Amino acid sequence: MDRRRGLKTQRVYNVSTRAAGADLKLTVRTIRPFRPTIPQHSPKPIGRALVLGEFAKSAAFRLSYPLNQSSSQKKMSSPLAVAFFVFSLPSPVFMRTSSLRKIQMTQKNDVTNLHGSSDRGNCQCVTSTSRTRTWASGHLGPMHQAENPHPPPSTNTTTTINQHPPNMCSRLTQDDIWRCDGRRAVRYLGTSSSASTRLTTTNICSFFPSSIPITRTHSKMPRTPDWVKQLKPSGVQGHEMLKQERANSNVPSQELEVLLHTQGSIDRRNKITALLKSEKVFDKSQNYFMGRTDRFERALAREKRLRNLKKQHNWTYDEFRTATELVGEPGPYGLHDSMFMVTLEGQGTPEQQDRWLKPAREYKIIGCYAQTELGHGSNVRGLETTATWNADDKTFTLHSPHLTASKWWIGSLGRTANYAVVMAQLMIDGKSYGPTPFCVQIRDLKTHEPLENIHVGDIGPKFGYNTMDNGFLLFNKVKVPHISMLARYTHVDPKTNKFGRRGAPSLVYGTLTWVRSTIVMQAGSVLARGVTIATRYCAVRRQFQDRDAPAGEGETPVLNYTLVQIRILPLLAATFALHFTGKAMMEMYQENQKKIAQGAASNAPSSRGAGPEEVMPGSDMLADLHASSCALKSLSSTIAAEGLEVCRRACGGHGYSSFSGIGPWYSDYLPTTTWEGDNYMLSGQVARYLLKSARSVLKGDKPVNETTTILTEFHSRRDIGCAFDVIGSDEDLVAAFAWRVSFLTFEASKHRDEQKRAWNDLLVNFYKLSKAHAQYMIVKNNLDAIKAIQKDGKTDPAIHDVLLKLFRLFALHTLEQEASEFYVSGACSKHQISLARNTTVMQLLKEIRPHAVRLVDAWGFDDWVLDSSLGRKDGKVYEDMFYRASELNPLNDITVDPYPDNDVLFKRIEKSKL
Question: Per the database entry, which stretches of residues form a coiled coil (predicted)?
């Protein structure tokens, strides 16, 4: 019994063969029989050996070779260490017990590789588990064919366990892994530091206390029997049903697609999609079967290939961004391409941009944006990481004084980035000047190891987003030069040691405002993925017979049920509403950036406070943009995230399968509701802005922007009341939303300013106020976009007609959901609410239903992009689900031992020849 491993030795094989110029000794300690296969490689062969085909679940291999070399081997720079293994779990068996296997050893560039073959063919890869461990023993000399490959097993049951020499252990690391046929295998690598070392014993317990991850390599899946392949779904085929759905609608989906994306964008997307589909690294067939380490490795490979394609095809920024979006998963370069470079562009001086932005664009440095901490997220002003100004040597000292000061959740930081824009509290003479960005190197550019006094790593697996290496970061009094502080708007004068501003200090929040604006833009597209899948599937899926249908009618498409329509079609309407609002939001952001650039040119200091919500009501566009981005980010990401879950559930049981394409996308999108400002906490900033705007109106200030305009209109008519025709007039419907948000704003102002209620007591009111403000902006921007389309006069009337119906459905469905607020505010009557709920909304569902499939087609999602069985454009739902389960699923390549009295977990598959 080996007490250290808890394994009972059954028998030991001692194999000793001898050939001219070489001897081979093999000791195998067995527990249960199995046979490993060996990786294939094709460099120059240097010898062969025959090995017995009976090995063990847990085995120690001891190989030794004389140091004398034949003349053909004298060019080797140093003897090579032979690697071998401890197999701690059973592996699938690919050889018969009686199979004689030949191992061919090859050498290239001081790397030794093994290739095995037998009477049943070549062995391509090492079969092992994540518990596999490797070490080196002995030296490689000239080898020849062994003489006696079938020695009898010995009755000796003793084993020799000694300490492995440390000079050998140090030469093999987790880097000693190589790729084989797209899967991970062990790399036979290592050189001894002493050419005279000859090992006779091996310690199988102490080497590599943490295991090297090895992915199990499976034999080829048994093909689906022909009789199964010939089966078809019962009833009307899916492709026939979707063809009929499209024939029932007069909406020109291609023209609508051009309206949404522009023809140039569509052509660019189609061209890049075709290119990516032709690249093996972007194959999605195994997306849903991989573990986190393999997914991250694959994501990194894809990111690198994207950069090579960008260079190869001379892609523009828009082309590259399109390619990134089409891949459809967060990648390790994600924060480098967005937050890191955007911050350098927006907040760096020309000198700093030359120093960091230029190499960042060339991927000579890889960066991230490190703001969120273990102890603080939404409260940016509460960040604990400090940057203390050192007047004596004109440097800053970055320090993490507490565990909660650890930077946390930082995308691209865990294993990828070597630079970071770090938000830290600027400290000068003991006084804090607020969160300030610093560009800091965190890893060596050659070894990629962390720099001294910097601790950085990955935070571990998450609910989703596992292709991104979100990381942690701590500093232990790390000094950085004066230039590290991004100084476009704020700076420290090295001569006077004084802090100064070159504009509004709140502009350091500009990066977050940009990100929130893009989140609004993306929300419509994200939701459209789920709606596309759910709509197509529910149009194909048939369940039950309509009780009012004629006898023999057959089962009803699920999408015909109003209980399904009321869940999916309002979300379909929301995709267009969010899309048009996102475009308006980005235009507002661009306009604000122009004004910032004009104001920054003067370098005039501002009297504003540090936060963007500390506004000059009615005159400060940044404040309006900040409040709008907070409100819309909160609502749009909530609609998209919750909508994806609604779509998944609308797909029934199959929606729970990864093959639906909704669940994995939902888990990756879900953090959007939290990062860049928690959706609940952001409402406080929106409320603060609206309260200040209300006070401005109450003082009699003239309205100079949209917010103060609707507040002024409400204030002047509040005693008179309103009479909006929310059912018959689109303009009145929007006005009702404006009236409601104005009512809630002045109610909050009364509670806070007149009744002096505590801020915390009003947080629920503020959340409802923020939500109402965002809903008003969405319905207004949606209607404005449709009016602009109608005014242009170039669009098919059918498109204009269906977009108006979608607008009304979204607005009235929202009104119905928030009925109490509309009624209490006086924006509409009880009768109008009842009419909207029981008549108008249901009629709109009936009118939009025939166009549902063509409307989702207009989003232009390629099947490769959706990666969904349920959302296939051709309707072959069941065929694709079965193919993925039967042909692509690696778990079907494993046979288990189900009996609890046997500790074998997996055993050999005996394939039928029938």
Answer: none
Over range 327-343, report the average pLDDT. Answer: 92
Q: How far apart are CA 435 and CA 415, in angstroms?
A: 25
Contacts of 540 (CB under 8 A, 6+ apart): 238, 241, 242, 557, 875, 877
CA atoms within 13 Å, Cβ hemisphere of 839: 8
Asked if 640 contacts 523 with a C-beta cutoff of 8 angstroms, the reply is yes
Task: Name the amino acid, one letter, at 89.
Answer: L
Q: How far does CA 44 lie from the centroid of its chain?
A: 42
Q: How confident is the model at residue 394 (pLDDT cuts 50, 70, 90)?
A: very high
Boundaries of CATH 2.40.110.10 in the chain?
334-502
Span 327-342, mean pLDDT?
92
Task: Decide: 870 and 660 in contact? Cβ < 8 Å.
Answer: yes
Identify which has the larger pLDDT, 676 or 170. 676
Whole-model pTM? 0.75
Contact present, 35 and 85 (Cβ < 8 Å): no
Whole-Å CA distances, 661 to 596, 654, 752, 868: 42, 10, 46, 4
Q: What are phi and psi of 143, to 5 degrees?
A: -125, 150
As a whole number of angstroms, the distance between CA 398 and CA 387 comes to 5
Query: Over the chain, what is the mean pLDDT?
Result: 78
DSSP calls for 322-374: HHHHHH-S--TTHHIIIIIHHHHHHH--HHHIIIIIHHHHTTSS---EE--BS
- Fold held by 513-606+627-857: Butyryl-CoA Dehydrogenase, subunit A; domain 3 (1.20.140)
Q: Of 778 and 616, which is predicted with more confidence?
A: 778
Residue spans in the chain of domains classed CATH 1.20.140.10 = 513-606+627-857
506 confidence band (pLDDT: 50, 70, 90): low
Q: Find out whether 533 and 662 touch, Cβ atoms under 8 Å.
A: yes
Q: Please state, in angstroms and as integers, the Cα–Cα distance from residue 747 to each residue in 452, 697, 829, following that order.
A: 55, 14, 20
> What is the Cα–Cα distance from 529 to 531, expressed in whole angstroms?
6
**For residues 570 and 811, what is the distance between their CA atoms, to the nearest angstrom?**
9
Q: What residue spans in the chain does CATH classification 1.10.540.10 cover?
A: 252-327
From CA 442, how far away is CA 455, in angstroms rounded?
9
Q: Are 776 and 818 in contact (CB under 8 A)?
A: no
C-beta of residue 779 within 8 angstroms of C-beta of residue 734: yes
pLDDT band at 122 (very low <50, low <70, confident <90, very high): very low
> Within 10 A of 7 (CB to CB), how many other CB atoms are there?
18
The residues annotated with a catalytic role in the active site are 676
CATH of domain 334-502: 2.40.110.10
Which region, left, alpha or beta, applies to residue 676 given φ > 0 means left and ψ of -120 to 50 means alpha? left
Measured between alpha carbons, how far is 886 from 893 in angstroms, rounded to an integer?
10
- Under DSSP, is residue 266 helix (H, G, I), strand (E, B) or coil? helix
Residue 247 φ/ψ, nearest 5 degrees: -70, -20
Give the residue with greater pLDDT, 875 vs 181: 875
Q: Which residues pair with 122 in a beta bridge?
A: 117
Instruction: Specify which residues 80 forms β-bridges with.
Output: 191
Sorted by sequence, the CB contacts under 8 Å of residue 74 that are 6+ apart come out as: none
Q: List Cα–Cα distances, 60 to 133, 219, 260, 686, 739, in angstroms.
A: 11, 25, 64, 66, 79
Task: Report which DSSP code applies to 485.
Answer: B
Taking the CA atoms of residue 403, residue 408, residue 414 and residue 417 in that order, the dihedral angle to the nearest 10 degrees is -110
- CA distance linking residue 700 with residue 689, whole number of Å: 17
Closest CA to 745 of 827, 825, 639, 632: 825
pLDDT score, position 513: 74
| The architecture CATH gives domain 252-327 | Orthogonal Bundle (1.10)
